[in-house]
Amino acid sequence: MKGRLRYGLIHPDIRAAARAKTSTPDTMKAFAEHPSQEAQREVFEALAKDGGYLQAYTVRHGWRQRCRDWAAIPDYEEGDKIRLVTPVTLTDGSTCQIVTATHYRRGRQKRRCYRIEETGGLVRLSKAPLAGSELLSSAKGAASPVLAEYFAARE
């Protein structure tokens, strides 16, 4: 009974594929393991674009690959200058592509934010825009002449 109730949490496109017999009940269970319907749809579309028959192990592999990709997004140190792969559009309509990692304080907590290179304003970014970003210069480079020379040669 619990298994059937979980099917209600699955994205409607995936349920339609199950009704069309292009996936198995085990595949449905594999999709039900993730609570976000948007994430379910992303993995479903990535796997279904080949047009093949979906299997539970391919869905689980898709989840694992997605986790690996998320874990591969780097964590930058304070003072690192970063070029994002694609410009990020802000709520005021402006865009930014080169930012410097910094922080601000809220009470006793330090919160990660990024200083926009062009305007000097602060912006909070989720981890997603940092995927595939490029480190332009490191804060550690200022402390080490060897690293400073390396980053200068890259520019």
Describe this structure in words.
The chain has helices at residues 2-6, 12-19, 25-32, 37-48, 56-71, 139-143, 145-154, and strands at 81-89, 95-106, 109-116, 122-123, 134-137. The chain is an alpha+beta fold. It has two domains: 2-71; 81-154, no CATH class. A five-stranded antiparallel sheet has the order 4-3-2-1-5. Helix 3 (25-32) runs parallel beside helix 5 and helix 4 packs across helix 5 (56-71).
Give a summary of the structure in a few sentences:
The protein has 155 residues and is of the alpha+beta class. It has helices at 2-6, 12-19, 25-32, 37-48, 56-71, 139-143, 145-154; strands at residues 81-89, 95-106, 109-116, 122-123, 134-137. It folds into two domains: 2-71; 81-154, no CATH class.
Q: Which bin fits the share of residues in helices?
A: 40-55%
Roughly what fraction of the amino acids lie in strands? 15-25%
Overall SS class: alpha+beta
Question: Strand order of the main beta sheet, please?
Answer: 4-3-2-1-5
Describe the biggest sheet?
A: 5 strands, antiparallel
- The radius of gyration is 21 Å
Question: What is the CA-CA span between the terminal residues?
Answer: 60 Å
Roughly what is the average pLDDT, rounded to an integer?
A: 82
Q: Topology as H/E string?
A: HHHHHEEEEEHH
Shape: elongated
